[in-house]
Amino acid sequence: MLHLRVICPSDRADRVLALLRAQPGATHLVHLPGAGVLPAGDVIEADVAREATDETIGGLCELGLDHEGGITLEQIDTALSDAADRAEAEAPGDAADAVVWEELLARTGEESRLNVTFTAFLSIACLLAAVGVITDSSVTIVGAMVVGPEFGPLAAVAVGLVRRRWDLVRRASLALAIGFPLAMAVTALGTFLGNWAGLFDASVLSGSHEVDFVYQVGYWSLIVAVLAGAAGMLSMTSAKSAALVGVFISVTTVPAAGYASVALILGEWGRFVGSTAQLAVNLVGIVLAAAGVLLLRRSTWRAGDAGRPLSEG
């Protein structure tokens, strides 16, 4: 379940209470008249079954409370209550299949920002990938996959495309378009300094290695990217975040960026082109698969709950 808190103008409190009372998936309703300070108004709280949340948020937004008040949601880990059990049983659908669009927009919007933290994680991940390439260490490559923060912006692009939120698409695309080249530049500099210091030479890329899959782009690269993108978006929309770890260690976005940086400095142009193509295939495949999952879940949601308004967020 999710905990809902609403701050609304006092003259709209009765309508909010009526909306929540009419929602079978809502319970633990609390009304605190005049408790809101900034913005001023009444505070109304309720616990809402996940599968009923999107409809509830849509109704509250129709009352203008996202502009003249405030709506917040928090995840409830444990609810010991017969009333909560009844609300979840009476809410249509299943919690694991419910998509809370406003929550998804907020989550992907936050993770799509280009900032120092995102750039630092991406740079460290690419440096780890470069170390894995140089030392032929698959374990280090996997570590780089896990550290990489790129799935957030990729998911944001998919959500923005499906919801036609072009501001979200632009922001996430900017994070990727600037973040990856910057991280690759840092990795290339690290590779140059390591080569200059005599830690390794061009021979580290000669011959056959365990990590050669990073630059060997092909049909399987796209297949893995599509499956990972689908699993990642399913994980985000169903709040099963543990599955994201499997997504991180299955795609070769960060390893490909790291490999391209190493190959560029060491003059391995064929491998540079291959790893760059691998990066592009993975990025595109993840976005297309994630968007496809959202479209499927959206159409399923509409078919199962005909007539429900879709909040535009």
TrEMBL record:
UniProtKB keywords: Membrane, Transmembrane, Transmembrane helix
InterPro entries reported for this sequence: DUF389
Protein origin, superkingdom: Bacteria
Pfam families named in the record: DUF389 (PF04087)
Entry's transmembrane regions: 114-135, 141-162, 174-197, 217-236, 243-266, 272-296
Protein name: DUF389 domain-containing protein
Naturally occurring in which organism (per UniProt): Actinophytocola xanthii
Lineage of the species this protein comes from: Bacteria, Bacillati, Actinomycetota, Actinomycetes, Pseudonocardiales
